[in-house]
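ugh ok fine here u go
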Amino acid sequence: MGFFSSVLLLVLHLLQGSRTSLVQLNANGYEGVLIAIDPAVPEDETLITEIKDMVTAASTYLFEATEKRFYFKNVSILIPESWKNITQYKRPKQESYKHADVIVAPPTVPGRDEPYTKQFTECGEKAEYIHFTPDFVLGKKQNEFGPSGRLFVHEWAHLRWGVFDEYNDDEPFYMAKSKKIEATRCSTGITGINRVNKCQGGSCITRTCRIDANTKLYEKDCQFFPDKYQTEKTSIMFMQGIDSVAEFCNEKNHNREAP
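structure:
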């Protein structure tokens, strides 16, 4: 069952001013969500379809992940004025680029399509906006980042609730009270293996991680690779792409030992 109501197409106006979201929560449904397509993005009607599909999937995922508390009730898409083939749109009332909660734009660094949320605030404070690239929205990066609807919910949690990722690139491993080296994650119910995977000159090697004599943790190049098949439901802020993951960490299952 879907919980997403409608998408409205609006023509994009680039106005100066401070960024202010128009999102409101009405009877558990987010209204006024604004997704803006940057003028630098070439016209592509498929992008509109994929945005609709992404939000529809995200709405259902969010509804279940929050124990039926929240869903996306309606979303508006701002399209560039230069897009001439799409004629079924309305003129915006107050919506503009500065109000966008999500921006679909070329990658900040060429070739880097990783979704991100511009978040310089403290935990619990709203962030500025979510950035998706066209290739991500079009599903060309799904093998790398997972389904777009699930990742939208991950980024929405950054944007609206000011939560942070439950992995740590600076401290990917820690020594647990059990004296076992654990990957930084929530929850520890996510199983996997720790390996070094290096590629050079077209060939790759995979080997067991070694322990660093100084840190007593795994060496710098060691990575945690989750098993393909899981039963653990948490957490969306660690790795929402895992099929079984459908919940946020809470007081009951939060990994308090992780850095």
